[in-house]
Amino acid sequence: MNFRSVKPSQGDYFMILIVCLLIAVGLTAIFSASYHVESATLKSNFTKQIVWFVISFVLMIVAIVLPLRLINSVTYWLYALSIVALIMTLFSSRIADVHRWIVIGPIQIQPAEFVKIGVLLTLAKYLSEERRDLSNLRDIGFAFGIILIPFALVVKQPDLGTALVFVSLILPMLFWAGLPFYLFFSMIAPFLSLISAFNYYSFLVAMILIAGVLLFMKRGPRYFLFNMLMNIGVGLITPLLWGKLHTYQQHRILTFLGLKIDPHGASYQVIQSIVAIGSGGFFGKGFLNGTQTQLRFLPAQHTDFIFSVIGEEAGFIGVLFILALFYIILLRGIFIAFVCHNRFGSLLSIGIVTIIGFHVLVTISMTVGIMPVTGIPLPFISYGGSSLMANMILIGLLINASIRRYKY
Amino acid sequence: MNASQLQNRYRIFVIGISVAFFVLLCRFFYLQIYQRARYFQESERNRIQKIVLQPTRGIMYDRNGVVLVDNRPSYSVYAIPFETKKADSVFELTATILSMDVGEVKDKIRRYRRSQFAPVKLKRQIDFTTLSEIEENRLSLPGIIYDIEPRRAYSSGVRAPHLFGYLGEITDNELEVAKDSGYRLGDIIGKKGLEKVYEDVLQGLRGFRYVEVDAFGREVRTLKDKPEMLPLPGKNLHLSIDAELQKFLEARMDTLQGGAVVVDCRNGEVLALVSKPDYEPEIFTKPITQDVWNGLINDPRKPLYDRMVQSLYPPGSTFKLVVASAALESGLITKEWSSYCNGFLTFGRRTFECWKTVGHKDVDLTQAIAQSCNVYFYKLGPKLGIDTWSEYAKKFRFGERTGIDLINENAGLVPTQKYLDETYGAGKWSQGLMLNLAVGQGDLLVTPLQLVSLAMIMANKGVYHQIHLVRYIEDPIDGAQQQLRVDSTMIQGISDTTFNIVRNGMYEVVQGVHGTAKICRFRDIHVAGKTGTAQNPHGDPHAWFIGFAPYEKPEIAFCVLVENGGSGSGNAAPIARGIIDHYFHKSKRKLAYEF
To answer: Residue B79 is part of a domain; what is its CATH number?
Structure first.
């Protein structure tokens, strides 16, 4: 990666090229996924997505041009607007049994996609304020509060996948904002305890590891004792709570985590996706030649499982190409965060990297069965206007931060 | 945070992202390069489906080429499990339309499913209303499809349900036996009658074809690079049945209980085989409802029973032909041996009555047969003894199956010394039993088929031709005819003289002044026969008439039974008259035969 490509005088416009490449690949995949099906709704996917692209491109330009200071000043209003939009969603009519869209005339908007931006901006603004002290638990707690409200509202829709996007934001941004390692570790250790709690030996090993790291932090006996007690507590309560769940609830959780195979139900999609990708081989079956795709064995193939279409028709080569493009975007994003001298822009950039990275890793991992099926879109590639617009705005903001890295 | 701390955290981010991408890439490498072959096969299995092509079932013709059993298209309903499971309402709606239980529908899908996408047969041969209802609800019934499946059609007007038998879905037990022949759950198999006996011939050979299907089980295209095999149609059966004669007899006996068999005594071909009461053969061409089935099963007149083949009766006086032959052949009597009948015979403390209470006066053997004098034969009974009696009964093929090409044939019962000892206790049965056995009563039980066989043996003076229904099997493709072997045997130990004497008695039954079946007299045809009036515990005696014609050069042998019909001469012989009249005067069969 050539860091010098971001010259002091200009922003990272190279990003636009990469994103456009990704969108072109996405359009090709959507075309393939919608091909030769007589149904009109699917046929129009391709043209619709082109329209969305044009609109998003304009939105991206706007996001590049607007001064960061201006954006910063209206951030809390945007947050309020986001919350209102999410509440409105809950009162909207159901589509496919969930409250996920707001319908305005012929257009269905998925507010949660834009709320991601609002929450991200708010968190960046909050954490970038001079008076924040990230060793202060009250300030940390408030940061958690910022994501908790939209999280709860999106869970209500219900859309757990998107809700997890908000959760994914908090740790990387706190970390980038300067959260001390010892607190960072206090936050992630309980998850380790929770996962290891199902087996005596794994729990013992986890506790020894945690104790070791806690001692290594040299934060004194109170810190050590408090964390140890908390982790042991989590470990003890987990099996009890698990036992209280009904069998079907346990099955659902296990299936969600991919620990249990249910070939006729939830796992069916993943099995078909793996078959599609695996059968693609090195060079792929060729455009419009993927049997899993063209014969509709692949579920949700123009949205959640679009990457399987690429895996089948373009093969390992295609996968490598797409992963490389995403990798470039993410690394450049981290670099922008690194070089951006204003704290708001820097935190904003790391948040954008987190959001896009989370989407990419989760959706792609899900197609090869190493992550649960959550139903979130693959940025720039999956069909869907709201998602494309939101992601283009994020890229716009990232370029914006790169342009204004010395000013504010 | 100072610059070096920031640098550290920057590195952590870069390393974190890089590790994540590397892990993903490894996973793709593993799936797409290392495991490619396995997943490629799986994707091929998904899209390629072997479609079994069902052959058309063979057709049954009568002896003159009239189509008796044919195929006609009908519709069967299938479910594609992958599609139907999407909504519970599909099952409910389907169940309502097909008038099945929701549980039944689900159970069928669970039991019969071969894959997510392979159709499972839900119901066979739906009527047109059901079909249009499915079509109307197309959109609410994802995964419910229908397809043409032939059903049997009986267009000639011949009922003969016991003869043709019927088809049905293969059961688990049948599948266990027949799975090596390529049957699968949901297949159709012959259940009764000729459909069952000639299942192997009629069914043909299944073909197959590979097609590309989409996720909804829809055929996208036929794969040309995969082998394809067309089904071979089942072979046609050319029956010996004369449709006209069969129809005539079915109509003639429609209100009666009993039946009739007509056999060409020159070769053993069955010209007509009627058992009454019967049922519409059509009812088994569609899935039978519980009500109809219970009605058939519980009908006290037992319409499902093929009386000619499965049921046992005392033969009554028709059996006197056997006793007469035995007495002559064993030297007990001669043709001239005569006896006086005063209407009854006292034997021990019991009185055995002749049917003619005033008696037959002096009768010789010919007249004893012609007038069916019981007393004459009562006297022969004890003289013959059980051993000679049963020996000759067996010579005339009683107590064994004729081997006709139908299922569930009954062998009947010829009592022997051993049998009587076991039944009544050794020495505990009196010679009085012999009196009954001599007139075809007592423990002796026969099938009507065995009696027509007796008539044939009499007609042919000892030559027995295997009684059979199928003349030849025809390959519908090249028209090749496969003749079936007909075994002919000569009854041993009965001389021509004996046959001539007994046959003469049979001639007198019809032609004689005192004959019991004068009703069968024709100007141009001489008929020979024997009436029977079999006493039985179920009510009025069964009326029998067996015989052959023409006497001089026999062509047909027949047996008529009217259950509880009273006297043979009064109720069975008139039906035989109709048979002979039809055969010699109305039937066109001679044309076909000589052609």
So the answer is: 3.90.1310.10
pLDDT score of B458: 96
Inter-chain residue contact B25 with A357, CB threshold 8 Å? no
Residue type, B523: R
Q: Are residues B327 and B292 part of one domain?
A: yes
Residues B1, B19: Cα–Cα separation, whole Å: 25
Is pLDDT at A5 greater than 70 in this prediction?
no
> Number of structural domains, chain B?
3
More confident residue, A266 or A204: A204
Do B14 and B141 lie in a common domain? no
The residue written with tokens 């370029």 in the block is A399
Closest CA to B192 of B26, B358, B74, B305: B305
Q: What is the pLDDT of residue A1?
A: 40
Residue B326 sits in the same domain as residue B286: yes
Task: State whether A278 and B17 contact (CB < 8 Å).
Answer: no
Token look-up 């904002």 returns A177
Check B32 against A178: CB less than 8 A apart.
Answer: no
Instruction: Encode pLDDT of B496-515 as tens digits.
Output: 999 999 999 999 999 998 89
Check whether residue B536 and residue B473 sit in a common domain: yes
Residues B55, B231 contacting (CB under 8 angstroms): yes
Residue appearing with tokens 């070089």: A339
The CATH number of whichever domain residue B581 belongs to comes to 3.40.710.10
Say how far apart CA B131 and CA B22 lie, in whole Å. Answer: 57
Distance CA A193, CA B556 (A): 97
pLDDT tens per residue across span B343-393: 888 888 888 888 888 888 889 999 999 999 999 999 999 999 999 999 999
Query: How far is Cα B480 from Cα A140, in angstroms, rounded to an integer?
Result: 94
CA distance A321 to B432: 106
∠ CA B255-B258-B260, nearest 5°, is 105
Cα angle: A10, vertex A12, A14; to 5 degrees: 120
Which tokens hold the place of B418?
A: 């051993």
At B431-482, the pLDDT tens digits run 888 999 999 998 999 999 999 999 999 999 999 999 999 999 999 989 899 9
Verify that B20 and B142 share a domain, yes or no: no
ipTM reported for the complex, 2 dp: 0.92
Domain boundary among B153, B179, B202: B153
The CA distance from B498 to B561, in Å, is 26
In a domain, B121, yes or no: yes
In a domain, B448, yes or no: yes
Contacts of B34 in chain A (CB under 8 A): none
Is pLDDT above 60 for A232?
yes
What is the CA A305 to chain-centroid distance, rounded? 15
Q: Give me Rg for the CA atoms of chain B.
A: 34
Residue B436 sits in the same domain as residue B575: yes
Distance between CA atoms of residues B181 and B329, nearest Å = 51
Chain A residues interacting with chain B (CB cutoff of 8 angstroms)? 172, 175-176, 178, 264, 272, 274-282, 291-292, 294-297, 311, 315-316, 319-320, 323, 326-327, 330-331, 334-335, 337-338, 350, 353, 357, 361, 364-365, 368, 370
Q: Is B34 on the interface with A (CB under 8 A)?
A: no
Domain that holds residue B359: 243-594
Residues B120, B36, single domain; the answer is: no
Q: Are B39 and A278 in contact (CB under 8 A)?
A: yes
Task: Name the 3-class secondary structure at A310.
Answer: helix
**Other Cβ atoms closer than 10 A to A375:** 18
In a domain, B191, yes or no: no
C-beta atoms of B42 and A331 within 8 A: no
- Which residue from B minimizes the CA distance to A313? B32
B147 located within any domain = yes
How many Cβ pairs closer than 8 A exist between chain A and B? 116
State whether the Cα torsion B521-B527-B528-B530 is positive or negative: negative
Q: Distance (Å) from the C-alpha of residue B43 to the closest C-alpha of chain A? A: 6
